[in-house]
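Appendix B. Worked example

We walk through a single record from start to finish. Start with the input: the chain for UDP-N-acetylmuramoyl-L-alanyl-D-glutamate--2,6-diaminopimelate ligase, Puniceispirillum marinum, length 502.
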Amino acid sequence: MHLSDLLKNLADIPDQAASIKIGGMSENSRAIKPGDMFAAVAGSSTDGRIYIKAAIDAGARVILTDMRPLEAPLDDLDTPIIMVENPRLVLAKAAARFWHKQPGMIAAVTGTNGKTSTTDFLRQLWTRVTWQASSIGTLGVKGTDTRKMDGKILDLPKLTTPDSVSLHSALSPLCDAGVTHLALEASSHGLVQQRLDGLNIHIAAFTNLTQDHLDHHNDMESYFIAKSHLFMDLLMHAGAAIINIDDPYGRRLCDMLTAQGDARQIVIQTFGFADDADFQIEKITPIDNILDMSVKHDGKSWHIPLAMSGTFQAVNALTAGIMAYMSGLPLQDSLGGLAYLKPAPGRMQTVTGHPQGAQIVVDFAHTPDALRAALEALRPEVSHKLYVLFGCGGDRDPSKRALMGAIADDAADVVIVTDDNPRSEDPASIRSAIMAASPKSIEIFPRDTAIKTALEQLVEGDVLLIAGKGHETVQLIGDETLPFSDISVASRIIADMKEAHK
Ligand SMILES: CC(=O)N[C@H]1[C@@H](OP(=O)(O)OP(=O)(O)OC[C@H]2O[C@@H](n3ccc(=O)[nH]c3=O)[C@H](O)[C@@H]2O)O[C@H](CO)[C@@H](O)[C@@H]1O[C@H](C)C(=O)N[C@@H](C)C(=O)N[C@H](CCC(=O)O)C(=O)O
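Next comes the structure step. The output line below is what the pipeline stores for this chain.
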């Protein structure tokens, strides 16, 4: 594609550069191929401008960057440098133009907790009525038959929300494989870094906003502003906003959208336990292994049996149901279809077969709010003791550690503190920061030893929540990425215990 077409109305292009042919693009010099455009952006740990020379050596034909003055040697390059106010935004829009294919229905979910389950549930609801649906997020790309993609492998970075170039280059083969409906997770990092700009987002949902990633966003206010970008700027004209108004930030978001008036014709659908919600949750009752949820909408009550654990999972299911409804599924398939949902991997996932009949649940809860919600959701299922086993990630918001320790101490009977992904931090100091807020906690590490010790203590009526890593299959310790899955470690230990009991 000619540079003049790629950047039309996005940047001023010098005449001599207009006819340059661009074969691809990236904001990472290491991914540049001959003929590409390199976007040199300032990041949180380094500055893309440092890598301009490397990108040119790799074959970059054009450089896109911000308006800061060019210092030597950048001021004397033969390769054209296009300067714009916001190179990430221009890159995202150029990527959308370059790959130019998007599913006809795109729905994005944002919020601190619930994004993964909600997108997975929405994909399941669409697939059930035989719509060709995919989801992209923490679990990677799901729901697409790669055989229909001529064996193409979608190599997305392991992020909740991929960068704009990875995303648009993946959407093109997905569309070619027939995908018409896409559910996406919109992380606050992704929104701030404009990874979703250039997408035609028809439906956006807000789950909740609680303390997480404050290391990146500094305070709740900027975290909220990051999330609201999805609704205030990215959601298309006449799109639908699905908002949890039990959360005060959800209420605020509704007010902000309403204040925009009719100009964008956004349809707002609210949900929650609140009396004034459009989809009002009347109650959620655990009965045996199911949750019975009743929801009032338009004067009619829906009673929906859900094959899952935890009130918040029921709320995530409802969010997906309303999104499906706003995408055109009738209520009997959108709300009624919730009865057929299966929990997403590592989201309140049960590991069965404990020799004493104890219940083991693996959940990704790695925030204070998610930990409390998971423990409170499990409490009705405990007839003896509620155990929790968790740690906290290194190089991430340290203020979470004491909060999570205090919550575990309050909401569980037995607290086992172990390692999560310590990354570059000292694991012992992360554990002690958690334990300082939990007098009843016991320290056991490494993580597999902690899981084994807990499983061996459990008796009938006990429930063990293994929190923090959910679906993850690796553990990040120092510079090493080691294979580790809570689900397979727990399953293996249970199998060994059963063998020993024979
Ligand atoms: C903090 C953060 O979001 N970092 C992401 C971001 O980095 P950045 O822009 O701050 O980049 P940087 O490392 O300072 O580098 C600046 C620029 O130089 C470029 N560069 C750098 C080195 C080089 O050799 N050549 C080169 O061109 C980089 O590609 C980048 O464009 O852009 C990079 C390229 O797109 C991402 O890979 C990187 O994700 C890192 C791996 C990451 O861990 N991100 C996490 C925090 C994240 O985004 N998490 C959210 C979910 C959180 C949640 O809700 O749980 C997510 O959406 O996954």
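Two observations about the output. DSSP finds 16 helices and 22 strands in the chain. The two ends are 68 Å apart (CA to CA).
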